[in-house]
C-alpha cells in the first residue's frame, strides 16, 4: 500500500519517525554501556525500525484526533510505540516462518546469521541468528512498553489506554498462534481464514490502534463501538487487498516477484475461496503448486486463471466493496472530530483501492 | 537453592502465587474467547508459572519493605509480574539453547511439539513447537507489563518504578546476547564470564528487583546505591553457588544428574577458572569432555578432580565468601527498615550457603 504525500498516514509519519529515532538513540547508548559487542544488535534494531508504513501509529493518532485530542508530541510517541510491537511481531514471525527476507532486506535472523559466519565463530550460524533474533524481538516488545509509558501523556491517560494496549498484544499473539495452527491443520477454509484475519489484521492493525487513541483522549467508552464498526471491516478489506496483490500484483509495484504469496504457500482468503470453488481436479493441481518455491511464470499464470475463473477473485473484490461500505457508513455515526473523520475516510480509500 | 518454610522467600511466596493464579485465570478466559484451540497455550503458561523459586519477587518485596512499604496486595502483584518476565526468559532461553527439559518437565517448545505430533498435523512438529514457544514467551513478556501496571499501586509510583523495571529488561536481554556470544566465541575467560554473570544474575536477579521495590515505595534515590552494593555481590555469589552445585551437586538434592552442567557444556565461572589454571594437557582433555551429553560417571569424577586440584573450586568458594562479606556489610549502611534488613541478611545466607 502506498500513500500520497498529503495522505493521513504521511501527515503523522515525520513526527512518528522522529520519536522512533530519538528513542532508538537513547537505547543504543544503553546497549553500548553493556558492551561494544551490542553494536550489531543496535544496528539490526535500527534497520528494522527504519522501514514500515506506520499504519498502526496513523490509526492510533487519528483515533486520538477523532476524540478531540490535539496534535501534541505525547500522542506521537504513544503511537510510535506500536511500531516496536510490530517490529517484534515481524522479527519473531520471520523466525517462526523461516523467512529469509523482510521488505527486500535480510530478515533479522539472517543478518545475525551472517555476522556469525563473517566472524568465524564456532557452532551453528543459523542457530545463533535465530537465537539473537528472538532476543532482539524481545527487546522490541519491551521497548514498545517503555516508549508508551514514557510518551509524556499523563499517568491517568496511559492507565486508561492500557485496556486496548493490553488487549491488542494478547490478541495479536493469539492470532499468530491460530495462524500457525491453520497452516499445520491444513484446514484453511474460508471461515477459519477469516478468523485469523479478524485477529491479525482487523483488530491488531486498525481497531485496537483506534481504540488506543480514543482511550488516551479519555473517550474510550463512547468512541470504541464506532471505531469497532469502522475498524473491523476496514482491517479485513485492507488485508484482502494485500492478499489480492500477493497473487495478482505487478512486481514493479509490489517490489516482490509475481505471485509471491503462491510461491510462499500463504493460506490467504483468495486461496481459501479458490479451493472451495474449484472442481476436485483443479483443486488438486492448485494445491500441488501452492508453496512451491520454484513456481514458473506459466504456473503462476495458470493459478491466477484458476482463482479468476472460479469466481474467487470476484468474491474477494465484492467482500472489499461490502466492507468498505460498512466502514464508511460507521463514520457517519458518533461524535468524531470533523478533520479526523475526513482523514479516516481517506484511509479507507488509501488502504483498499485497486492498484494499477 | 531451597528455603525453609520460615525464610524471607516463603514469607511472600503464597501472596505472589495467589496474584499469579488470579491473573492467569483472567488471561485464560481472554485466550479462550479467541478460540478453544488456545487451551494448550493457556495450559503451557500455567505449567510454566507453577514452578520457580519466586526469588525475584522476594527481592522486589523486601526492597519495598526495606524502604518502609507496607505488606499490601499491590506490591505482591507488582513483584509477581517479575515471574512473567522470568518465564519469558526461560521459555525463549530453552528455544535458543535447544534444551528439552525445564525443572524436570518438558520445556515449553517440547510440550507444543508433542501436541503437534499427537494431533497428526502436517509439517514439522519441531518447527511448530519452537514457533509456539516463541509466541508463548512473548505473551509472558507482554503480560509481565500488564500485571505490573494493573497491580493497583498508584500511577505515580508505577511510573517511578519504570526506571529499574525498564532497565532490568534491557539488561537481561543484552546479557543473554552476551552469553550467546561467549558460547560461540569460545572466549570463556574469567573476566568475560563475570561480565555475563553481572548482567544475567547480579543485576537481573537481585539488584534490579530491589531497585524496583525501592522505587515503588518512592525511595529510589536514597536506597538504590545501598541495594546495588548489597545486590551485585550477592547476585554473583548466588550464581557461583549454583554453578558449583551444577558440577559438584548431589543428584538427590539438585534433582539433576551429577555433573549436569558439565554434560551441557555450560561455560560457568568454575569452568573458566579450571581452564585458566590447569596445564595444557589437562585443559585439552577437560575441553574434550565438556558438553559431551554421554559423559560417564568416571569422567565426571575426573573433571571434578581437575577443578578441585587446580584450585578453581577453592577460588570460587573464596569469591563467594568475599561477596557475601561485601553484601552483608552493605546492609549496615543506609536507612533500611529493621525487619527487611534482617530478611535481606537471611537471604544472603539462604542463597549462598554450602549445600550438604
Provide an overview of this structure.
2 copies of one chain form a homodimer. With 356 residues, chain A is an all-alpha fold. Chain A has 2 domains: 1-153, Orthogonal Bundle (Farnesyl Diphosphate Synthase), CATH 1.10.600.10; 160-356, Farnesyl Diphosphate Synthase (Orthogonal Bundle). In chain A, 77% of the residues lie in helices and 1% in strands. Chain A has a two-stranded antiparallel sheet. In chain A, a hairpin with a 2-residue loop joins β1 (101-102) and β2. In chain A, α4 packs antiparallel against α6. Mean pLDDT of chain A is 93; it is low at 1-5. The interface between A and B is large, with 60 and 60 residues. Chains A, B: Belongs to the FPP/GGPP synthase family. Chains A, B: Its EC number is 2.5.1.90. Chains A, B: One of its GO terms (molecular function) is metal ion binding. Chains A, B: Its cofactor is Mg(2+).
Spatial order of the strands forming the largest sheet of chain A: 1-2
The helix tally of chain A amounts to 16
Shape of chain A: globular
Structural class of chain A: mainly alpha
Question: How many discrete domains of chain A?
Answer: 2
Question: Any guess at the CATH architecture of the largest domain in chain A?
Answer: Orthogonal Bundle
Q: Please summarize the sheet with the most strands of chain A.
A: 2 strands, antiparallel
CATH class of the largest domain in chain A: Mainly Alpha
- Oligomer classification: homodimer
Helical proportion of chain A, percent range: over 70%
> What is the distance, rounded to the nearest whole angstrom, between the alpha carbons of the first and last residues of chain A?
12 Å
What's the overall average pLDDT of chain A, rounded? 93
Which regions of chain A are unreliable across 5 or more consecutive residues at pLDDT < 50? 1-5
What name is given to the CATH topology of the largest domain in chain A? Farnesyl Diphosphate Synthase
Fraction in beta strands of chain A: under 5%
Largest interface: A-B, 60 and 60 residues
* H/E element sequence of chain A: HHHHEEHHHHHHHHHHHH
* Corresponding CATH superfamily of the largest domain in chain A: Farnesyl Diphosphate Synthase
Amino acid at each position: 500500500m502506498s500513500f500520497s504525500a498529503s495522505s493521513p498516514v504521511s501527515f503523522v509519519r515525520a513526527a512518528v519517525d522522529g520519536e522512533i529515532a530519538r528513542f532508538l538513540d537513547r537505547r543504543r547508548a544503553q546497549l553500548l554501556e553493556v558492551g561494544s559487542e551490542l553494536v550489531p544488535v543496535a544496528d539490526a534494531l535500527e534497520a528494522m525500525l527504519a522501514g514500515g508504513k506506520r499504519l498502526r501509529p496513523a490509526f492510533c493518532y487519528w483515533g486520538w484526533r477523532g476524540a478531540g485530542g490535539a496534535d501534541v508530541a505525547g500522542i506521537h510517541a504513544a503511537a510510535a510505540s506500536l511500531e516496536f510491537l510490530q517490529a517484534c511481531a515481524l522479527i519473531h514471525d520471520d523466525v517462526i516462518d523461516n523467512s529469509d527476507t523482510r521488505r527486500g532486506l535480510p530478515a533479522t535472523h539472517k543478518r545475525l546469521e551472517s555476522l556469525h559466519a563473517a566472524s568465524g565463530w564456532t557452532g551453528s550460524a543459523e542457530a545463533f541468528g535465530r537465537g539473537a533474533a528472538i532476543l532482539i524481538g524481545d527487546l522490541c516488545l519491551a521497548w514498545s512498553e517503555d516508549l508508551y509509558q514514557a510518551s509524556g501523556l499523563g499517568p491517568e491517560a496511559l492507565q486508561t489506554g492500557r485496556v486496548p494496549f493490553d488487549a491488542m498484544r494478547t490478541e495479536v499473539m493469539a492470532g499468530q498462534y491460530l495462524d500457525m495452527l491453520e497452516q499445520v491443520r491444513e484446514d484453511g477454509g474460508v471461515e477459519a481464514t477469516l478468523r485469523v484475519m479478524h485477529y491479525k489484521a482487523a483488530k491488531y492493525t486498525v481497531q485496537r490502534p483506534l481504540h488506543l487513541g480514543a482511550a488516551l483522549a479519555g473517550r474510550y467508552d463512547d468512541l470504541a463501538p464506532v471505531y469497532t464498526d469502522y475498524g473491523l471491516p476496514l482491517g479485513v478489506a485492507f488485508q484482502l487487498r494485500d492478499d489480492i496483490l500477493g497473487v495478482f500484483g505487478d512486481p514493479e509495484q509490489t517490489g516482490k516477484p509475481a505471485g509471491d504469496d503462491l510461491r510462499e504457500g500463504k493460506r490467504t482468503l483468495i486461496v481459501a475461496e479458490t479451493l472451495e470453488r474449484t472442481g476436485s481436479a483443479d483443486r488438486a493441481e492448485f494445491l500441488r503448486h501452492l508453496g512451491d518455491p520454484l513456481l514458473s511464470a506459466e504456473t503462476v499464470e495458470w493459478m491466477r486463471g484458476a482463482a479468476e475463473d472460479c469466481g474467487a477473485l470476484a468474491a474477494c473484490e465484492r467482500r472489499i466493496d461490502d466492507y468498505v461500505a460498512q466502514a464508511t457508513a460507521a463514520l457517519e455515526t458518533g461524535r468524531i472530530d470533523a478533520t479526523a473523520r475526513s482523514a479516516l475516510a481517506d484511509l479507507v480509500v488509501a488502504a483498499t483501492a485497486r492498484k494499477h
